[in-house]
User: Which sequence fits this backbone?
């Protein structure tokens, strides 16, 4: 008895550990949780955040160009053969030349130089442009995260649709199986013909194939959802929300009564930033006509030796220092600067036109999306009513079939109609949700 109890405890402990491991490999997500997880773990979203960090560094890089720049240098030369110069022979015949070598075998120098930009139009405009580029990167990050959320939401709906359809197929299959088994018994008892049972068996086989096909489709859609969320492929995910809950949470009246504010649209915001960047690019080219002023200071130490003894403290190093200003004024470039400004002016006009064109298109899209939402809502309500009527027909037909007042063919047709009504109903829920997504995207509410 003790041995049996021990075996039971060991098996129970092993089952508990296995259940824990299985639970650790399963992740549960509501729609909101799936979206938050994706924004944090999707690689495209992570890259977009890195782009913002890179833009921060670009701002600092541009700003640093106007701050003091200091560099140091050390040089050493070993003259293998000193250069020779010919000079007149002043001690003898001046018309004759004698060779003389000047210099030392070892020369070394060390120095430091500092530069400070005092005024540059290009620097000022470049710094402003870098800050605008940072804002542009933030907008792109928001757009990328929005695209990630959109993809996750749409595929979340697809998984729910697949699971709902699978449940409908399984329920219908089970109902047909029961009818088939009952019909077989009636056939064996001689109350119905064999054809009645055969017809139901054909329907049962088709439904079983549909169930298997839908299971594979759900698995593929879940894999895509995991990829978009950044979930490891080995993990299993379970979706907690249902289509019915998500549709019920929609405020239809508020959605249909929305007014479009184009300034809230992320695409319009990005185009506005692009227009600002194009304008700053134009200003940057214009600033090439402005002068620039900078200051510099340098200090050098030099030594010449016949022997390599630069580290001897008793030997002299000779210092030289200099302070100065550098003032540059552009005068003539043969039209080079003018052509550059003209190109940037054209690019700025194009950016303005693109923004205005997109604004008109977004207004048209918003109106169309509201129409689509209204149509999807009407279809959903119609399909819901059809489903209720179909359920009633199925119940009545099942009763008639059991009483011998309806054939298996009638039962099969009614079940097929019911299945189609269920499919239409679940599909219409997804259509309503997807139509709502399009409106939310334009309003920047995803």
Assistant:
């Amino acid at each position: 008895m003790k041995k049996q109890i021990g075996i039971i405890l060991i098996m129970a402990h092993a089952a508990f550990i296995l259940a824990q491991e299985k639970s650790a490999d399963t992740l549960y997500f509501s729609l909101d949780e799936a979206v938050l997880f994706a924004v944090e773990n999707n690689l495209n979203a992570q890259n977009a955040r890195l782009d913002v960090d890179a833009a921060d560094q670009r701002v600092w890089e541009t700003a640093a160009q106007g701050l003091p720049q200091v560099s140091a240098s050390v040089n050493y030369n070993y003259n293998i053969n000193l250069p020779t110069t010919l000079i007149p022979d002043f001690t003898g015949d001046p018309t004759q030349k004698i060779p003389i070598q000047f210099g030392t075998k070892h020369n070394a120098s060390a120095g430091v130089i500092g530069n400070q930009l005092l005024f540059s139009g290009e620097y000022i405009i470049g710094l402003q442009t870098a800050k605008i580029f940072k804002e542009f990167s933030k907008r792109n990050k928001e757009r990328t995260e929005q695209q990630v959320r959109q993809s996750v939401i749409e595929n979340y709906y697809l998984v729910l649709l697949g699971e709902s359809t699978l449940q409908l197929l399984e329920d219908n299959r089970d109902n047909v199986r029961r009818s088939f088994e009952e019909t077989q018994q009636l056939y064996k008892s001689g109350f119905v013909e064999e054809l009645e049972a055969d017809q139901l068996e054909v329907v049962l086989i088709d439904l079983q194939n549909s169930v298997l096909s839908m299971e594979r489709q759900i698995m593929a859609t879940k894999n895509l959802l995991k990829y978009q969320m950044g979930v490891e492929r080995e993990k299993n995910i379970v979706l907690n929300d249902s289509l019915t809950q998500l549709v019920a949470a929609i405020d239809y009246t508020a959605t249909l009564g929305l007014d479009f504010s184009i300034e809230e649209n992320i695409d319009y915001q990005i185009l506005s930033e692009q227009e600002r960047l194009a304008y700053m690019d134009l200003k940057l080219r214009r600033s090439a006509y402005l002068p620039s002023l900078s200051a510099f200071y340098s200090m050098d130490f030099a030594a010449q030796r016949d022997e390599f003894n630069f580290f001897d403290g008793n030997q002299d190093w000779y210092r030289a220092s200099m302070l100065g200003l550098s003032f540059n004024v552009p005068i003539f470039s043969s039209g080079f600067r003018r052509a550059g400004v003209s190109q940037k002016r054209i690019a700025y006009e194009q950016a303005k036109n693109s923004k205005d064109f997109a604004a008109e298109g977004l207004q048209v899209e918003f109106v169309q999306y509201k129409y689509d939402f209204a149509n999807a809502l009407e279809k959903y309500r119609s399909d819901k009513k059809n489903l209720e009527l179909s359920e009633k027909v199925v119940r009545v037909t099942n009763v008639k079939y059991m009483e011998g007042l309806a054939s298996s063919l009638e039962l099969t047709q009614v079940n097929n109609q019911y299945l189609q009504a269920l499919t239409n109903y679940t599909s219409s829920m997804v259509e309503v949700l997807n139509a709502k997504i399009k409106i939310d995207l334009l309003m920047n509410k995803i």
